[in-house]
Amino acid sequence: MFRNLLSRLFSDETGAAPLAGQDAEVAIAALLVRVARSDDHYTDAERLRIDRILARRRGLDMAQAAERRAAAEMIEAEAPDTVRFTRHIKDRIALSDRAGIVAAMWEVAYADDHRDQDEESLIRLVSGLLGVTDRDSALMRRQVLDAMGQQDR
């Protein structure tokens, strides 16, 4: 099933069909995993945060969310470079969902209570590639930090 998702997601076919449902969530989760891995410290706190985000977005229980994250880890490992990976996601995920993806990336970046330049740089790159402005991304970052009860970092 996830092999099929890999081929659908990374197909260079023009006008490829949008991803929906579980496929979309696994693709988004793969992007979250990429953010978490970008500093070479993929922690349990980051895994748990990804699981919580997936559970919250689609009303999953934690076991289902962990299963999707595990699939996303495999997809992320096989995904092309970040620019192409993000382009494929952007082309197949609704515009209305992209701001939520950026907010989720900020949640993952701060899940381990550690500010990391590699994670922040990747989020800024991906935000732009998804069509989210720097200003909107910064506002989402602030909202995430406020919601997590953390001071500006």
Query: Structural class, from helix and strand content?
Result: mainly alpha
> Helical amount among residues, as a percent range?
over 70%
Report, as a whole number of angstroms, the end-to-end distance: 40 Å
Beta fraction: under 5%
Instruction: Please name the CATH architecture.
Output: Orthogonal Bundle
What can you tell me about this protein's structure?
This protein is mainly alpha-helical and 153 residues long. It has eight helices and no strands. The model has no long low-confidence stretch (mean pLDDT 86). It comes from Paracoccus siganidrum. Residues 26-141 form the Co-chaperone DjlA N-terminal domain. InterPro entries: DjlA_N, TerB-like.
In terms of topology, how is this protein built?
Layout: H1 2-9, H2 21-37, H3 44-58, H4 62-78, H5 82-92, H6 95-109, H7 117-130, H8 134-147
Name its key features.
153 residues; mainly alpha; globular; TerB-like; TerB family tellurite resistance protein
